[in-house]
Write a structure and sequence with these properties.
Layout: H1 15-23, H2 29-33, E1 39-42, E2 57-63, E3 69-73, E4 76-85, E5 88-95, H3 100-103, E6 109-119, E7 122-126, E8 129-131, H4 133-139, E9 143-146, H5 155-168, H6 178-184, H7 189-197, H8 202-233, H9 244-252, H10 259-273, E10 279-284, H11 290-303, E11 307-311, H12 315-332, E12 338-341, H13 347-359, E13 364-367, E14 381-386, H14 396-402, E15 408-413, H15 419-425, E16 430-434, E17 445-450, H16 454-466, E18 470-474, H17 482-499, E19 506-509, H18 515-526, E20 532-535, E21 548-553, H19 561-568, E22 579-584, H20 589-600, H21 604-615, H22 640-656, H23 666-683
Parallel strand pairs: 5-7, 10-15, 10-16, 11-13, 11-14, 12-13, 14-15, 17-22, 18-20, 18-21, 19-20, 21-22
Antiparallel strand pairs: 1-9, 2-6, 3-4, 4-5, 6-7, 6-8
The chain binds adenosine-5'-diphosphate and magnesium ion.
């Protein structure tokens, strides 16, 4: 077995299980090994009820005195049991596990383990694990990997497969040059790989993680350099001069561009008409007005007879861009055609769209990554804009180059990172920053409250709705349990409908809905028909509904602060005063302190780094502050130091051996090729 072997070569993995792994993007043994745990579970000794702490995963010894009760609620069986210890109570709830009634027999003792929560003054645990005391004794003080899962695939299956792969594989030899490893004090590769999946102690885990994070950044930076070299010699094959049409669009806007927008638009115009192909990143916080800049560039391209494409990470966003481009065309009296291309279109619709794209009838094309699939060929592609690019990665440019196309590339990102890091991460791109919000914006008012405030919040929401506004409510997340998450959103919506009866229309949105359904709901929210949208974090990125004035987040303590900041960016996009209500499900002081950071600042990077300071290094596993560039293990925020070190080492290495020709760099060169192959394979999915 080697890194490229298919999953079915692992003992115990048949075709059926392999398909489940495929769904998570794991096709080969190598991909499995770099599917790192999301977090680790350390099994600690059971505590007494007096030592229960909210929001912590804890174990207790449960003496069962009375059989649990099982109730049917719609299609859900809810089993409840109350444990008592010296007059203190702990309330346990399980969903769809009716057999527990028999397992938890009176007179027996179990170790019950789960996240402890305080709800309405009571200690509760939802879906806790149940172990016999002997079984628990064996787990005690071990660290168990927790993997991201998909429906039908259990943590045990993934963990077992990893164990077998590690045991059977001729592991990769160390490929980092000795001097790099020594200088950076990096653990050996195979040790790191084993330890990240099966840590024995915390200190080893920290070393292992550091090594793998370094590798990931190092390989990334080395490949970026190749892209940069290509970009530097790529002559501008799509010269786009200043156009009348762009001025017409500008003139038709109901507002004036901010100073920052003007500056960035000028930089883009210079690129478009300059000697080399444009490769530019626009960085601008949520709501800074990146879309209109993209539209200006697209219109300029179309005016010179080139096609312009705009890619969005989700179907909902693609449709939104399509709508706003059409609106801009109408409002400015321009007659460029706007074509949509997404995965959920019917085969016939797609065929027709392909035809119009190929024969040049389509001037502007908006879509999801369906746009860069092989079946799409452009008539005369001159500009590609990608929105929220961290969902895409920077490499799709190569996909175009492979088709013999050299369009200008404009990348838009709302992830706020300091300039020093941006230069490393986007080494192949020129960077423009929109560091100014439209003046008409009122700052968002924030508050962090507990659950007792919920009714007050609803009354407030009622007033906003009466004033014509719209509302987002983001529902609690349910870790690793998409079924429950769905249940939560649906239940919550039903309760909300009682509070807000007709004609106030309340709808929900969650990740398991079909694309077409999501689009329909989003469309109705955009048009104002739906007044309250209850959702999971699927609305996180890019959605623009300026009339929405309230963002209420339930169980805010379960979210990363950077994510909450993104959610907050969904409101305050129009002229209305907007509000963010973070409802904390716990009265834990630490949690409050964390959430209060959001109150103090609107600066995404500051927020993420303060969050880290409060958490401390022991708490870093499993928290990813950003999905930036989708690194597998490295996090641009938490691992900024390693990122800088990797960048320094890459520069040193390339100075000594620019083409990696030295004998001691051959292994690295081979690994780099493998990395680039993998990256490209993913991009063209
Ligand atoms: P983001 O940068 O998050 O993508 P958008 O481009 O979606 O932001 O813009 C947010 C809102 O701000 C849109 O409704 C847009 O019409 C509006 N907008 C953009 N530029 C300006 C401006 N200079 N003045 C006022 N409103 C603006
Ligand atoms: Mg946007």
């Amino acid at each position: 077995m080697n890194h490229d072997s298919p999953m079915t070569e692992i003992k115990g993995i048949g075709e059926k299980t392999a398909t489940l792994f495929h769904r998570m993007g794991i096709h080969t043994v190598g991909e499995l090994l770099s599917y790192y745990p999301r977090a680790y579970d350390t099994y600690e000794a059971p505590v007494t009820f007096a030592n229960l702490q909210a929001e912590r995963v804890q174990a207790v010894t449960g003496f069962i005195r009375k059989r649990p009760e099982a109730k049917k609620l719609k299609n859900l069986t809810v089993t409840t049991l109350t444990l008592e210890e010296f007059g203190a109570y702990l309330h346990l709830t399980w969903f769809n596990m009716p057999f527990l009634k028999n397992t938890l027999a009176p007179g027996s003792t179990f170790i019950i383990r789960g996240r402890v929560q305080k709800k309405k003054g009571k200690w509760v645990m939802e879906q806790p694990e149940i172990h016999t005391p002997t079984a628990y004794q064996e787990l005690l003080h071990t660290m168990q990997p927790i993997y991201g899962l998909t429906a039908g695939l259990s943590n045990k299956t993934v963990s077992k497969a990893v164990g077998r792969a590690l045991a059977d594989l001729n592991l990769n030899p160390e490929y980092l040059p000795e001097h790099v490893r020594m200088d950076q004090e990096l653990a050996e590769y195979n040790f790191a790989l084993r330890t990240i999946h099966y840590p024995v102690k915390q200190e080893d885990l920290i070393l292992a993680r550091k090594r793998l994070v370094f590798d990931e950044f190092f390989l990334f930076i080395l490949s970026l350099r190749r892209l940069k070299e290509q970009a530097e010699v790529q002559k501008n094959e799509c010269p786009i001069e200043r156009t009348e049409e762009a001025s017409k669009l500008l003139g038709s806007l109901p507002y004036e561009l901010t100073g920052a927008q003007k500056k960035v638009w000028k930089e883009i115009q210079e690129d478009l008409s300059g000697p080399r192909t444009m490769n530019r990143l626009i960085q601008g916080d949520v709501g800074s007005g990146k879309t209109v800049i993209a539209a200006l560039a697209l219109v300029s391209a179309a005016a010179q007879g080139f096609q312009g494409a705009m890619m969005a990470p989700t179907e909902v966003l693609a449709r939104q861009h399509e709508a706003s481009l059409r609106e801009l065309m109408e409002q400015s009296g321009l007659s460029f055609s706007v074509e949509l291309l997404t995965g959920s279109m019917t085969a016939k619709e797609k065929r027709e769209a392909y035809a119009r794209i190929e024969n040049g009838q389509a001037d502007l094309v908006v879509g999801t990554h369906a746009l860069i699939q092989d079946s799409v060929s452009f008539h005369r592609l001159g500009l590609v804009v990608t929105d929220e690019q961290h969902r895409f990665g920077v490499r799709q440019r190569e996909t175009f180059a492979d088709k013999g196309l050299f369009p200008h590339v404009l990348v838009m990102s709302a992830t706020p990172i300091p300039r020093t890091l941006a230069i490393i991460l986007y080494g192949d791109l020129d960077i423009s920053v929109i560091d100014e919000l439209p003046a008409s914006r009122l700052p968002i008012k924030n508050c962090v409250v507990d659950e007792s405030y919920r009714e007050t919040a609803y009354r407030f929401i009622g007033k906003e709705i009466a004033a014509g506004r719209q509302i987002y409510i983001v529902c609690p997340m349910v870790e690793d349990n998409p079924e429950l998450e769905l249940e939560n959103v649906v239940d919550y919506t039903e309760k909300l409908r009682e509070w807000f009866p007709d004609p106030v229309s309340v709808a929900y949105l969650h990740g398991k809905m079909k694309a077409a359904e999501k689009n329909e709901i989003m469309q109705q929210f955009v048009s104002g028909k739906i007044r309250i949208l209850v959702s999971t974090t699927v609305i996180e990125v890019g959605v623009n509904v300026p009339n929405a004035s309230v963002m209420m987040v339930e169980n805010a303590e379960r979210f990363g602060l950077a994510q909450l900041h993104q959610l907050r960016g969904r409101v305050g996009r129009g002229k209305h005063q907007s509000y963010c209500i973070f409802v904390s499900g716990t009265d834990n002081k630490e949690t409050r302190k964390r959430l209060e950071i959001l109150n103090r600042s609107n600066d995404g990077f500051y927020i993420a780094s303060e969050d880290l300071k409060l958490r401390g290094p022991g708490d870093l596993f499993g928290i990813r502050q950003s999905g930036l560039l989708e690194f597998k293990i490295g996090d641009v925020f938490t691992d900024a130091g390693i990122l800088k070190a990797a960048s320094g080492e890459a520069a040193k290495l390339l100075e000594r051996d620019p083409d990696l020709e030295l004998e001691e760099h051959q292994m690295l060169k081979a690994r780099l090729r493998q990395y680039q192959r993998e990256g490209l394979a993913k991009m063209s999915l």
